[in-house]
Write the structure tokens for this entry.
Amino acid sequence: MRKYFLLLVLGLYVCTVSAQLIKQDNQIPKKQSDLDWYNCSFDQDGVYGAEVNKAYDLLKGKKIKKRPVVALIGTGLDVEHEDLKQSIWFNPKEKANGKDDDKNGLVDDINGWNFLGGKDGQVMETLLKEGDREFFRLKDKYGDYVFDGKNYYRVADDKLMPVPAPEHIDEFKYYRNQVMRESSVAGAYGGIGLAYVLRDYALKFDKQLKERFPDKELTLQEFQTCYDPKAPRDSLGEVAFTLMAYGFSIMKTEKWEDIYNLYATGGQVERGRAAYEKALKAINPGGRKDIVGDNYMDINDKKYGNNVLLTSDAALGTMQAGIIGAKRGNGLGGDGIIDRVEIMTLRVTGRSGEPYLKDMALAIRYAVDHKADVIVLPQQNTLYPEDQKKWITEALQYAEGKGILVIVPVWDLSRDLAKETFFPNRWMTGGKELTNLMVVASSNKEGNPSMRSNYGARELDLFAPGMDVFSTYTGDTYQTGTGVGLAAASVAGVAALIKAYYPALTGTQIRDILLESVTSRAGVEVEKGIEVNGKPTQDLFLFEDLCLSGGILNAYQAVMAADKLAK
């Protein structure tokens, strides 16, 4: 009864499961090429699936040598789903008795762990973005600084006053150049300082104009004489002049008095404060301390969370699990890629926001310590604070040393990964390249890349089925979904299939095999969404210019390559 009560609650959130998952319909397709088409092949079914069925034809007569463990690090999961029960991981050293049987500091981690849970059974449902978390961490140190490219100012006694440069200038630059760009709340807070700048320059410009044009009605024509062509390009004076000049157009006026009244009276400062308060109300800065109770900035504070895995964000994880390990041939939903798998659930994400890097690092280490063979991470991100990035780097190196493949999907933002850095990536160590990290994006039945996925001929490894995929859903139901998380599940399923039959192969070797055995799309020109000057548009690309392998995941060719390598 408790399960179905929770599922009733889950139903309130199906439209916001993930920015990477789009719920479509619950009509069960009749043909496999419309159902679990990731199992299909172009030559037999007319779709660009991963050729899993052909791989099984090749494996006939061979015995599985191990049940591979796939760790899904991301959302919750319906571990009681009718089509997944045989594929759920059970901690062999733990019992459901309210005790920490395996002495790892986590009580009853039977099927995995929820790093966003409290001891009382509560769970965090919504998270902040990393940029917002960094804003709240650094706000009191740097939020009130105004910089004109040369000099520093802060507001004191309702005035903008010159002050010395911040003591930790590199951290200030990080706040100004990265955090403010990533956080809408930080941007709103910075608007208050800008309002003081505009107020002071409105007073300054007004004094100049009245000295230059005494006894004359001041207009846009006179105001334009305030422009100083010799001023530095990033000076506050130029910023103020530009915004006020734009104000004439916005207010549809020629009178300087209207612009002066807008900025010089202090009303703009109050509007800036109101905008900041509105931005604050749009997010929930609390929650972690009250529910989880740990210090998210202390990697050694490890004993937190709970074992609640059926959460309101469990739809995506349940769909990923279905692609990887739904029962094959039972007539329920679609067939998983390998139903002899064990799926471990490690929850680090909610319905919104971005995962804490501490949770991700500890989840990777948990997966490694509990004998995972394949790890699937949430999407890449652009902001990885240096200290926390080190936690992820070291965790990935730990996985690499244990021979584990780690898969991370890109975001659907149409960004060129060669121009904008996302983490994790293979070069984030600053030294030796990570050889076990695979970056993936979604493709469709026609063999085309997702229009919105990020791309990069060096940074993105391959494309995999992840669009219009039918899979398991919470509450013993099934849905069609689209998202890079589903593409990552397709890759994880094929990697687990290889590991099941060729257990001696390492994560590095499996990554190499998957890259070299794709369904090649080299030379094929495809349409792709891109971003130019912050605006979405489209362009034509050769497939090999979008990813390193130049192709789409192929289990059949991967099994042939694995068999050859293993001999």
Observations:
- Residues 184-212 form the longest helix (29 residues).
